[in-house]
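TODO from last week: model Gfo/Idh/MocA family oxidoreductase.
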Amino acid sequence: MKIAVIGIGRWGVHLLRNFLAHPQASVVAVLDPQAERLAAIKQQFNLDENILLTTQWSALQQVPGLTAVAMATPATTHYALIKQALNLGYHVLAEKPLTLDPLECLELCQLAEKQHLILMVDHTYLFHPAVQEGQTVVKVGTLGNLRYGYATRTHLGPVRQDVDALWDLAIHDIAIFNNWLGQIPVKVQATGTVWLQGVGNGEFNHFPSGLADLVWVTLTYPHNFQAYIHLCWGNPDKQRRLAIVGSRGCLIFDEMSPSSPLTLLHGEFERQANQFLPVNQKREVLEFATAEPLQRVCDLFILSIIQNTPPDISSGWVGTTLVQILSGLTTSLNQGGQAVIL
């Protein structure tokens, strides 16, 4: 299957690496606006001379038999590039978010269906073995009655110049919460703080107050389950931690813990007279298969094309739902934290 990789920045390089190694894929072209990047990856991966390295989109149309494109470009470019690719008959794997506008997402999903093409979004965490095992734990009721969830995603950079910390970071945790709960939020709220890129430092069409560096998110799901997310790309205390608390325990996905990334803390209350005493407390490290999530993404993209079946776990429609949630959060952010009904 002939594939072109578009955009070879920090994430595009990983897409290129996976497709170069895939037994059912043949990378025939790499596109990036910076010629020096193309020269660097040619040397890094010792690319075959037959692979087209180009800075021009129009050059891809001259590649015979091109089947699909994998896209890792700035979010603001997604709509135009994906639309062109679908109209040219290419299957598309796009880096998250699908676009910055829910209506554009809907249009692209409908176009993909009309063209009988696969449109898939790289929501990598949904392919993480720990996340998939966590979904099973929640689904079978191990936690008891679900009460609330929380997540923290902080680090010092990279600072994006096309989207704020909300759009850059929150999509991962929202995708995991949605996946574990089997639901989507019905109400959202967000507040944020801008330090580095205010309105005086550039034009941000989708972000009238500038690009927020710190964001606090509240997601309300059906039955009043709430999840709280702390996001910041200006905090050296790097955290990648998400948890759901129930009446019988707490499930924690901590990506920064190499020895125990998925942990189940058992514990509940037993009422004795007028007191609530903790009982059945123990810590259980959960086992799961070892696999690179992005490799699974690439595998499913190719399999979906072969079978001509959109992937349920990370289709364009899943990406559209996440963009709708983020758009609601942005509205709340711009309104000083007012609740937005979805």
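Done. Residues 316-334 form the longest helix (19 residues).
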